[in-house]
């Protein structure tokens, strides 16, 4: 997976659009939440989706839920987790590249 694909996946989870080219910002703090805040938000959303999928499965086991709802919630949780893992892998890759750079 290339970095642009991971960035697009991350952007799609956030509901934003990927800018075509980076634009310099005079005051990045005024723009909005930082990268760490966005990561916290995505991780908490992933956890919520996972809990929702677990609740759907428990209801289905008890005979109260619908199988289609279970499959849908599991698919959403899986897609969210895959996005988080893709972003994590790209961050680790970027860190390794930076650490390998000569000073």
Automatic annotation (TrEMBL):
The keyword Acetylation belongs to this UniProt entry's keyword annotation: no
Amino acid composition bias (Polar residues), ranges on this chain: 11-26
Region feature (Disordered): 11-34
UniProt keyword annotations, A-Z: Bacterial flagellum
Highest taxon, organism lineage: Bacteria
Annotated PANTHER family: FLAGELLAR HOOK-BASAL BODY COMPLEX PROTEIN FLIE (PTHR34653:SF1), PTHR34653
HAMAP family for the chain: FliE (MF_00724)
Family: Belongs to the FliE family.
Protein's name in the database: Flagellar hook-basal body complex protein FliE
Native source species: Brevundimonas terrae
């Amino acid at each position: 997976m290339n970095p642009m694909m991971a960035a697009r996946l991350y952007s799609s989870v956030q509901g934003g659009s990927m800018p075509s080219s980076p634009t310099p910002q005079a005051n990045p703090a005024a723009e909005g939440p930082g990268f760490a805040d966005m990561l916290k938000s995505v991780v908490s959303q992933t956890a919520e989706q996972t809990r929702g999928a677990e609740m759907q499965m428990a209801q289905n086991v008890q005979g109260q839920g619908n199988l289609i709802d279970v499959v849908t919630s599991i698919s959403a949780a899986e897609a969210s987790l895959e996005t988080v893992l893709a972003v994590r892998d790209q961050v680790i890759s970027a860190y390794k590249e930076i650490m390998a750079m000569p000073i």
